Amino acid sequence: MSIRVVVAGDHQLVLEAFAETLNGTNGLDVVGLATTFEAVLPAVQRHRPTVLLLGESTMGGKALHAATEVRSHHPTCGVALMVGSATPSVVDRAVAAGALGVVPKTARLPQLITTLVGVAGGCLTVDPGLLRTPAAGETVLSVRETDVLRLTAGGATVKEIAGELYLAAGTVRNLTSAAIKKLGGRNRFDAARIAAECGLL
Fold first, then answer.
1. CATH for 143-197?
2. Which residues of the chain have pLDDT under 70?
3. For the chain, how far is it from start to end, CA to CA, in angstroms?
């Protein structure tokens, strides 16, 4: 099964060349392009990609807002951010906005492909050296744990969550257990309540 990708950036010609390079590589299939902030969400809605590859400096500096908007409306679409300089603060902001992958523009093609494949699988794919160490006592949920708790808060069953996020039911249970442990909840609904009260959803 191919990994469907929408690529967003400023320049049509550059995007088309980029799409041509990615198409067919490691099962990647570029299904859409977006050259403005306003075009990103409609492109994701229309093409239903597995991954949105988003240029950080594109769309008038609204890339992080676009990432958050896409994750909110289409939680099954992973977001990878291509940045000018991958520093810990940039990565921190990108992950907070919902991105699962961050790759510098200086990266070679194999690194970009690895990032897209990782994001498609729901994995946080970032250079470990760039990830911020949480402060003592700070609770950090993964993007997938947040997705599961958000759907749980809406009353979804494990089976419904698995279908919505394209995950196995066992994976949903593992993510739920991890989130319950991090938040100290009695069950998944209690964990969802705690996460909502802490502003984590």
1. 1.10.10.10
2. 57-60, 128-139
3. 31
The model's pLDDT over 181-191, given as tens digits with 9 standing for 90+, comes to 888 788 899 88
Tens of pLDDT, residues 155-171? 999 999 999 998 888 88
- What are the structure tokens assigned to 133, written together? 């160490």
**Residue 56: what pLDDT?**
72
Q: What is the pTM of this model?
A: 0.66
- Which amino acid, one-letter code, is at 173? R
User: Any idea how long the chain is?
Assistant: 201
Amino acid at site 79: V
Close Cβ partners of 104 (under 8 Å, ≥ 6 residues apart): 82, 83, 84, 85, 86
- Report the distance separating Cα 132 and Cα 57, nearest Å: 22
What's the CA angle centered on 162, arms 65 and 75, to 5 degrees?
A: 5
Amino acid at 129: G
Pick among 2.60.40.1930, 1.10.10.10, 3.40.50.2300, 3.30.200.20: CATH of 3-130: 3.40.50.2300
